[in-house]
Amino acid sequence: MKVTPSSHFQSQLLQASRWKWQEWVGWILVFAAPWALPSHALIVNEMAIVALFALSLDLVLGYAGIVSLGHAAFLGFGAYASALFAKHVMPDPVIGLVWGMALTTLLGALCSATILRGSDLTRLMVTLGMALILLELANKLDWLTGGSDGLQGVLMAPLFGRFEFDLMGQTAATYSLTVLFLLFLAVRHWVHSPMGATVKAIRDNRLRASAIGIHANAKLAVVYTVAACLAGAAGALMAQTTGFASLDVFALDRSADVMLMLVIGGVGWLYGGLLGAVAFKFMHDFISSITPQYWTFWIGLFLVVLVLVGRDKLFKPWKWGRP
Amino acid sequence: MLTILFDGIAYGMLLFILAVGLAVTMGLMNFINLAHGAFAMAGGYLTVVLMQRLDVPFLICLPVSFVVTGLMGAFLERTLYRRMYQKPHLDQVLFSIGLAFMAVSSVDYVMGSQQQIMQLPEWLKGRTEWWDGALGMGHYRLFIIAVCAALTVALQFVLSSTRFGSQLRASVDDSRVAAGLGINVNLIFALTFAVGSGLAGLGGALGAEVLGLDPTFPLKFMVYFLIVVAVGGTTSITGPLLAALLLGIADVAGKYYVPKLGAFIVYALMLLILLWRPQGLFSRQGGK
């Protein structure tokens, strides 16, 4: 059979979207982790949540090419939305999660209007501004959110009415991992769909993408909204599994940390966010066990070196110093 | 009422001196420098240390902090920053936020995390009231306004009427063509960066008493500097000046009249302005 160029590209694209056996093994190991190492279940839970958050930023930064310094806005909004829902309406975790995601999606759709125009600096400022506004609101509306004390006393009902959230965190970890896996499946499918390819085209060259008839603004708005939904899910999981929501979910550190995770793992690659989150968590625990107060110095140094060496070359020492 | 306006103007002038270096470097090199506040903090701490430990008079501390932070800026520009100009914005953001983190924890390590208290000289401590207290002017704020106004006039003069100024404006408009005309763009970059950092250091020294000085200074005020630049645009220095005055007055008035909302007003105002004019309130159409 003669291979025409178009079918060649088609088979390449299909090849990239196919599941590899390494991925299956990886996911099975991850799901086994909270049961094999029960004492680390809480850390696995935390990792799953930040991994979901990083995955969400990857859509915005890696796939759509929007530099955002305020992604924590959606994390925090999801966290407060589901925590308040559990406290005042009903304590069921799954419904609370869906509620948190729905509200954050709405917020993301509203905010997506702000990121369409202007330069990188403008986008940086409006995303950062959104997070700061929400932080101020959560701080000042203390009758609703508890202000700077945080929102306490969030009690969750057992998952599906059967599985209690125990102190060991095995239920919580499995719950978070399941949500992460399901959303990851959806995102993975979506990224390899024509829509995903369209978004990448806009990122690489917006002018050319518009020239072949892509409505760039509409697509970017959709990506931003979807990413907001994922970040909201991460926030909801965080509030539900810790039973607590505090102001620092909106803080600049969160947005900077998640950007660092993504950069460690690799931008524009779905597993980048997940691996980066795990690596960051280990690095954080390692450094803060040595110098609990000054660990940001080492994070800063790491960032500077990372950029000077080149993001893609950090783990390939033989390429250092070459352009 | 007038007192608030006066305080707002003093605050705005201070913000302008702090942020003008950022505006020029961003316009010149298209470089997003989130570590700009670190230079201001360096100037502030230098002044505090000089005044408290070595008993240097305040008026000598100001030029010293300008020169020292300017030299620091020049050094960092030569060694680190210049490699960043050609990189994508994500790299620049990561790099400069890394620098800011390092500055924050180094200062925390050396000086401790408490707020530094600055002892003003006697002749700046008083307060003058006019019209039965309708307009109360702290002498220190008057001093800030005077210094910043003088600096603004000097900057405007340098930019509009000197050879260096026209070379700088040419490089901002199109650095490739400017280089083609024989202007040493690299040197201009380095000088501008040094002067911008020096001004930030001077602003930090002046503002240590008004803004408060602790190790988180660069991160706390980064947002304000960026607002000034984003709203003012980077094509001129009058844009950032007006934006800084607007921000200063809005912030002081907002905190006075509706303390419940706090900084909310400033952020909301910024968001609205940027939605309306994404390139900045005062930038020319088609500017970079």
Q: How far do the termini of chain A sit from each other?
A: 42 Å
Coarse shape of chain B: globular
**How many distinct beta strands of chain B?**
2
Give the spatial strand order of the biggest sheet of chain B: 1-2
Walk me through this protein's architecture:
The complex is a heterodimer of chains A (323) and B (288). Chain A has 323 residues and is mainly α. Chain A has a single domain, classed as Orthogonal Bundle (ABC transporter involved in vitamin B12 uptake, BtuC), CATH 1.10.3470. Chain A is built from 14 helices and no strands. In chain A, α3 runs antiparallel to α11, α4 runs antiparallel to α5 and α4 packs across α11. Chain A is globular. The model of chain A has no long low-confidence stretch (mean pLDDT 83). With 288 residues, chain B is mainly alpha-helical. Chain B has one domain. Chain B is 72% helix and 3% strand. Chain B is built from 11 helices and 2 strands, in the order ααααββααααααα. A two-stranded antiparallel ribbon of chain B has the order 1-2. The mean pLDDT of chain B is 83. Chains A and B meet through α6, α12 and α14 of A and α4, α9 and α11 of B.
